[in-house]
Amino acid sequence: MSTTIRGSEKLPSLPAGPRGLLIDGKFVDAADGATMHVYNPATGEAQAEVAVGGKEDVDRAVKSARRAFEGAWRQATPSSRGKILWRVADLIEQHAEELALIETLDNGKPLAESRGDHAFAAECFRYYAGSATKIDGRHVVPSLPGEWHTYTRREPLGVVGQIVPWNFPLMLAAWKIAPALATGNTIVLKPAEQTPLSTLRLGELFLEAGLPAGVLNIVNGYGEVAGEAIAAHGGIDKVAFTGSAQTGRAILRAAAGNLKKVSLELGGKSPNVVFADADLTAAAQGSAAAIFSHMGEVCIAGSRLYVEQNVFDEVVGEIAEEAKHLKIGAGTDPDTRLGPLVSESHLDRVTGYIEEGVASGARPLTGGKRFGDRGYFVEPTVLVDVEPDSRVVREEIFGPVLVARPFKDPAELAFEANNTRYGLAAGVWTRDLSKAHRVAAAMQAGMVFINTYGAIDPALPFGGFKESGWGRELGPEALDQYTEAKTVVVAL
């Protein structure tokens, strides 16, 4: 019997927008004329057709970016670069509802979450607009005999390749584009094949803001073709990638040809720890949001929950109760709290993990299966009685699936929390400030959230330890990812 998903029968139309490749300031067809369908994850139906770039298109885009880097963009002042980034932020806000609708129809997330993503993207562009005029070197006094004038410069790398994922399409594009342009680089960017539409519209807004032709090029396409071509291209000086660790390794192999610089923001299996002395209501609500927001398709999701044993049932029970009452539906329905997963293949991956976990002894307090038979919906799931070495505990599921374990000894907790190949984020809930800082110091993670979860800001570096990646996004640290340090030594 068919199950009607709330809101999926009255979806609004997808706004008009570019569907080609952005190369040298124009939207063009792929060299071979290839196209692909873009699907609405709430219905599973095709909703648009976009050009599919291949190796030849990447080469065209790289040549365009190189011309722009050697020409108009090299001559642009830092102030003029900053003004363009600021205008793009203004345009994002002016087109906020249109962009949110595009994102929700393309990605599936609730409109409120799309609006939040794009507000953050606008602030990211503003942050780096201000940074464009503040990229400088330093004067150094060496301990050499004689008289010297020595100083350092920060210079752009040149042409950078950027590959962004499908979970935050426009926002993560902003994270990469903004610091790269602020520092004077030019770009060849590939959006995820599942979600290219908001990024293409962003490219159109950049042209409206006055960005010179060729500075930002966007090549839609498949990772194994266009993505690999970007990573391997000898005319690209650096590649920045966000996605899975498996694909990150493939990027490294492809980039080895010319030893281009590489930065990677990869996966996570983040521990979220609740002590008995925490505000348990706040901890339960925050922990639910940490795994169920954005359908759990978040690299920093608090997917491993550790609760002090004497309050385990209370906290986990409250989270499960919260999950049972999340409204599941199309992201365009204003009452929806949990939209569809991005694609059918990802739905199969998430439900496969749940089924394997249950088969190995895990017990679902709630959820545990697909929701409906139209679109890519899965029930928010809380698993208990999980073994520490099971795949649902050790591997990134990237969906609304929480695995919860009790603990007694904080020393054993630290070992188990860090016993993972990832090290992206961690959460700590306690009223004891000293305990909070001690646990934060013990966590092998690039970001630790105390009595909150997932609070990010353009000024704060974002990235992880171990297999969660190389380098940092956001903050002043991101500027270092897109510049070279040059030392100049003058004998007087």
Structural description of this entry:
The structure is a single chain. This protein is α/β, with parallel strands linked by helices. It has 2 domains: 21-266 and 468-489, Aldehyde Dehydrogenase, Chain A, domain 1, CATH 3.40.605; 271-457, Aldehyde Dehydrogenase, Chain A, domain 2 (3-Layer(aba) Sandwich). The protein is built from 16 helices and 22 strands. The strands form 6 sheets. It has a 7-stranded mixed sheet with strand order 14-15-16-13-12-18-19, with helices on both faces. The protein has a 6-stranded mixed sheet with strand order 9-8-7-10-11-21, sandwiched between helices. A 3-stranded antiparallel sheet has the order 5-6-22. A hairpin with a 7-residue loop joins strand 5 (139-140) and strand 6. Helix 3 packs across helix 7 (197-208) and helix 4 (96-107) packs across helix 5. The mean pLDDT is 96.
Query: Distance N terminus to C terminus?
Result: 86 Å
Please outline the major beta sheet: 7 strands, mixed
Helix content: 25-40%
Give the CATH level 1 class of the largest domain. Alpha Beta
Give the mean pLDDT.
Answer: 96
**Biggest sheet, strands in spatial order?**
14-15-16-13-12-18-19
In total, the number of domains comes to 2
CATH topology of the largest domain: Aldehyde Dehydrogenase, Chain A, domain 1
Shape type:
globular
Structure summarized in a few sentences:
This protein is of the alpha/beta class. The chain is built from 16 helices and 22 strands. The strands form six sheets. A seven-stranded mixed β-sheet has the order 14-15-16-13-12-18-19, with helices on both faces.
